[in-house]
Design brief:
Helices cover about 65% and strands about 0% of the residues. With about 200 residues, the chain is mainly alpha-helical.
Length: about 200
């Protein structure tokens, strides 16, 4: 069955915007250029998105896989659950564009503070929510030493992941599999040792 025209136009604009934002940078990719590249009129584009930042947010959600349902992590094994959260990857389909978009996104977020804050919330909240659930369950099961402050624990887990995401391309020998390393280090530092 064919997609409705509105859905097809929506997808064409998203794909054109992904390519243009990655190729030219966010500031330089105009709505006119996106309309031309997608073959969709500006009037139609503005029926789908209120402005360029709304379009940009949806583009970023798509390339980072943020619209996918998060996988529930509750194996009973703290290390396995942390590793599962920290190794979730965005879809491979947009790897090249995501890498090319990151520097432009960082610059844009620095000069457009409200957008930057909204984007950081959108990126970090799903991971924070998953980690919070994993850590709460671990605390209830007596798997964590006391006291472990939730915000501090999440910062220790997400900090290295964000660092690798932002600077990974420039770091020689940067690990692609940092999630398991971070999870194991956290468990070594904070897991309750069971005495038999």
């Amino acid at each position: 069955m064919a997609r409705p025209r509105s859905e097809e136009a929506h997808r064409k604009v998203l794909l054109a915007a992904i390519d243009l934002f990655a190729e030219r940078g966010i500031e330089a990719a105009s709505m006119d250029a996106i309309a031309r590249a997608s073959g969709v009129s500006k009037a139609t584009i503005y029926k789908h998105w209120t402005d360029k930042e709304a379009l940009l947010m949806e583009v970023l959600e798509l390339v980072h896989g943020l619209k996918r349902q998060p996988v529930a992590m509750d194996s009973g094994d703290l290390a396995a659950d942390l590793k599962a959260v920290l190794t979730q990857r965005p879809p491979d389909e947009f790897d090249v564009q995501r890498v090319r978009l990151t520097p432009s996104l960082i610059a844009y977020s620095a000069t457009h503070k409200e957008f930057g804050l909204a984007w950081r919330r959108r990126v970090t909240e799903p991971a924070r929510a998953c980690l919070t659930e994993v850590l709460k369950r671990a605390k209830e099961r007596g798997q964590l030493r006391e006291p472990v402050e939730m915000d501090d624990a999440i910062a220790m887990l997400l900090g290295p992941m964000l660092y690798a995401h932002i600077f990974g391309q420039e770091l020689r020998g940067a690990r692609q599999d940092l999630g398991p390393v971070v999870a194991a280090a956290f468990v070594r530092a904070f897991a309750q040792v069971k005495v038999k």
